[in-house]
Write a structure and sequence with these properties.
By secondary structure, this protein is α/β, with parallel strands linked by helices. Strand 4, helix 4 and strand 5 form a beta-alpha-beta unit. Helix 3 runs parallel beside helix 4. The N terminus is likely disordered.
Length: 174
Amino acid sequence: AVYGAAVRASVTRTGSPNTYVTLALDWQGCRRSPKAAVSGAALIVIPLPSTSHENLARALAPHLTDGQVIFLPPGTFGSYIFAKAVQDAGTGADVSFAETGTLPYLARKHGPDYVVVSAYAKRLPTGVFPARNSEHAWSVISRAYPAMERSEDALSGALMNAGGIIHPPLIMMN
């Protein structure tokens, strides 16, 4: 299995107004081991569908450590699934889970190592669970996503996701 967006990558940005990104990916370590995918990471970004969260949470939970932040854009209340998986793993790790109502960027793959990022979110309201970790999580996330804005909690962030309302009519009309 591939362990989602925890893939190690280096990024080269070029172009304007769109940003063209060349990725140098280290898939091998991440494919073999969820531990390798998250080891030493302060911020773990998981921009994957909610259908992937349960299995991914179980795979990552035993390897998460104190202070790590799991960022789930867009929010679907996956923070609850991840928090439960960490609790069930019995590690006692103090991990933060953050959710926002949208993706931080609009990106499309244009080649095996070429991604076009055509838009960035100007506002990224983000809530954290557990709330006691909010200051730490916001500090970590804002270094990667300066558009991040503070929201009440992870539920608030998840409820801002309008994807379930916007996407079905678009799919039906396609």
